[in-house]
Design goal:
single chain, seven-stranded antiparallel beta sheet, five-stranded antiparallel beta sheet, binds zinc ion
Length: 251
């Protein structure tokens, strides 16, 4: 049986190049001015050979990387950044629209690591979701999500290894919560391109997340449902998600 709507065709994205990374850190969250919160992370940016260190400062306007290694110093407004990626292992990736001069058309990606235990990936995610409308690939489970509208026990089908968890459609987010390392995810509704189902035990979320090695498409998350999802309920869910998406709106 086939139910629901087809996935939209995916937009193409450009090839990405792994950028160097790693980081040492000390980070302080400061509300310098109450009205203008900012986060300052001491980070390390690894290169193919060596690394540079500096401060990554995020505020209401954008982010800047201050480093004695002048060549790598950057200032981005939120409009300059195509996608953010926050990972469980305290990594933050910035995909900027700026091309790498030596790789025509390849986006410049800055990967930073921070190690300060006082700043969690959830805090970084929450700061970003409040300040940017660009896609955020959040490889963390948001602490939020108590107001679940729909909740499913699922298995996420990974390319190499799957994971199990709960897929929660809350008022302002979709959260995949798994106990397995690096497996959890959070999306705002506007981070989702579409929702689809190819059967009563199947649910797929197409996102705006760029794929590093498969640049022809955006990332799609395929979930196997442990309990059947009747067509009526799926249609209701589909309408719910699309209503939510209509309220946000990515550029
Ligand atoms: Zn550097």
């Amino acid at each position: 049986m086939k139910i629901g709507k087809q996935r939209h065709s995916m937009q193409s994205s450009r090839p990405l190049v792994t950028s160097c990374l790693v980081v040492a850190v000390f980070l302080s969250t400061m509300a310098a001015r109450a009205a203008e919160p900012e986060i300052t992370l001491n980070v390390r940016h690894d290169h193919a050979v060596g690394s540079c260190h500096g401060k990554l400062i995020m505020d209401s306007q954008g982010a800047r990387y201050e480093t004695p290694h002048k060549k790598h110093a950057r200032t981005w407004t939120y409009e300059d950044i195509k996608q953010w990626q926050v990972e469980d292992g305290r990594k933050l990736r910035v995909y900027s629209y700026q091309d790498r001069k030596w790789r025509l058309g390849a986006d410049e990606i800055f990967a930073f690591d921070w190690t300060d235990a006082n700043v969690s990936p959830q805090q970084i995610y929450e700061f970003l979701e409040a300040h940017t409308k660009r896609p955020i690939a959040a490889w963390v489970a948001s602490a939020d999500g108590s107001n679940a509208r729909y909740e499913f026990q699922v298995k996420h089908l990974g390319t190499i290894k799957g994971s199990e968890g709960r897929l929660i459609f809350a008022d302002d987010k979709v959260i995949y919560r798994s106990d397995e390392k690096q497996a959890s995810r959070t999306w705002r509704y506007e981070d989702l391109e579409s929702i689809a189902s190819a059967g009563i035990y199947d649910l797929a979320l197409a996102t705006y997340e760029q794929q590093k090695f498969n640049y022809a498409s955006r990332r799609v998350y395929n979930f196997q449902l442990k309990q059947a999802l009747p067509p009526d309920t799926y249609d209701e869910l589909w309408r719910f998600v699309n209503r939510k998406k209509g309220l946000g709106g990515l550029p």
